[in-house]
């Protein structure tokens, strides 16, 4: 069973490699579940480590229902990762009802051809996961990253074991993996385990002006600007006497 470590920088990638990780998943912004890393980070990590790296292609936080325009962006991100020689892609897309978007996923799978393809934890939001599993197998997905549709992989272990025994895709438990619960995942037929290795954090002592906007965080449909509000601002600035 392999160990895949989720990293967000050159420093964290080097730490994971030194620690003996088998491969890395490279992303940005762990606090929102990970998004696609920048071109600069992709180039820097490619030069910094020798072990296989899989690139997370997730264009934004929130849900996994993407427009055609966003899917086109994801295809470009995959192509750039391939050009840099990355060994794998972790990605996924869903319909608005939460089920697998087979058309969109087929486009992503085709773009990732020749790379190790992981369907990420969007799997844990799919209500009809059995149909999705068949679809992912048909598309040639190599690995499914999942917590067993539970808040943490240990809580979802029963479903994870079922998936490992009935899926043509490798199953990679992720979510709350730690040294003290690792034994529960050993010998169960899992392809790998996935973790960030970040220790339990104490409250931050930062005293400066906070720039985070917790009210903007969304697990569902992402926020969009109010066009009328923007027009009003532009109008008042450009024509203050109107």
How does this structure look, described?
Helix 3 packs parallel to helix 4. Strands 7-6-5-4-3-2-1-8 form an eight-stranded parallel sheet, covered by helices on one side. The model has no long low-confidence stretch (mean pLDDT 93). 32% of the residues lie in helices and 14% in strands. It has seven helices and eight strands. The chain starts with a strand and ends with a helix. The longest helix has 16 residues, at 68-83. It has a single domain, classed as TIM Barrel (Alpha-Beta Barrel). It has 242 residues and is α/β, with parallel strands linked by helices. The protein is globular. It has helices spanning 10-19, 39-48, 68-83, 102-111, 129-138, 157-166, 227-238; strands at residues 2-7, 23-26, 53-56, 88-91, 116-119, 143-146, 170-173, 192-195.
Concise description?
With 242 residues, this protein is α/β, with parallel strands linked by helices.
Layout of helices and strands, plus pairs?
Elements: E1 2-7, H1 10-19, E2 23-26, H2 39-48, E3 53-56, H3 68-83, E4 88-91, H4 102-111, E5 116-119, H5 129-138, E6 143-146, H6 157-166, E7 170-173, E8 192-195, H7 227-238
Parallel strand pairs: 1-2, 1-8, 2-3, 3-4, 4-5, 5-6, 6-7
Helix pairs in contact: 3-4
Keywords:
242 residues; alpha/beta; TIM Barrel; eight-stranded parallel sheet; 8 strands
